[in-house]
Amino acid sequence: MDRRLKTLASRMVFMVVVISTIRMPLLFLALDVVVRKNFTDAFIDDVRIFARVFADSIETSEIGADRPQLEQHLDSAVLGGRRVFASIQLATEVIPTASGEIDEPTTFEDHFKFGEHGDAVYFISVPLDSTNPMGFIRFGFDEVPIGEQIRQVRQTILYIMAMYFVAVVVLTTTLSSRIVRPI
Question: Would strands 135-142 and 83-89 be described as parallel, antiparallel, or unpaired?
Fold first, then answer.
């Protein structure tokens, strides 16, 4: 057995395993950063675009300050996707949605980063320019689906890297034994 470990073929396999073992975690970390950044940036962009378009739709519609129509408009926003909270803050009143999964937070803070405050909800407020005095639409978006997608991609990356590692070891073992075999 000791003689087998001193062969050129075994040394080649050993070096490939060592190099791959060093390289794999670095590659995983780099891919993880890219995946996380892309998913979270896309989520934040979608959230901000939706909130602004929704505010514009209220401002350009004939709803005005009609509370039942505003509530209906908010309910349709919450029922249509990842939104778990919506309300309109006017000067003297708050118009909440009846369909939200969570209640109005006691202190509403806009989030600027994904996962901020550890509450699994991304809060954003958008000004309503047409109301006098100025009002705000407040939304809460569920961050959990994006976190699950990131975990699934991580798991897929790990599977691919494990398959790559096994393939490299098998290929190196096969080729190294053929290379060192006498003609």
Answer: antiparallel
Compute the C-alpha angle 126/35/170, nearest 5°.
170
Under a CB-based contact definition with an 8 Å cutoff, are residues 73 and 63 in contact? yes
Task: Decide if 142 contacts 115 (C-beta within 8 A).
Answer: no
Other CB atoms within a 10 A radius of the CB of residue 94 amount to 13
Using only C-alpha atoms, the chain has a radius of gyration, in whole angstroms, of 27
pLDDT over threshold 60, residue 2: no
Structure tokens at 155: 């798991």
Beta bridge pairs of residue 121: 142
Share of the chain above pLDDT 90, in %: 17
Q: Helix, strand, or coil here: 135?
A: strand
At residue 87, φ and ψ (nearest 5 deg) are: -160, 160
Q: Which two tokens stand for residue 181?
A: 């075999």
DSSP state of 139: E
pTM: 0.74
Go through 26-47 and write b for each residue having 16 or more CB atoms within 10 A of its CB, e for each that does not.
eeeeebeeebbeebbeebbeeb
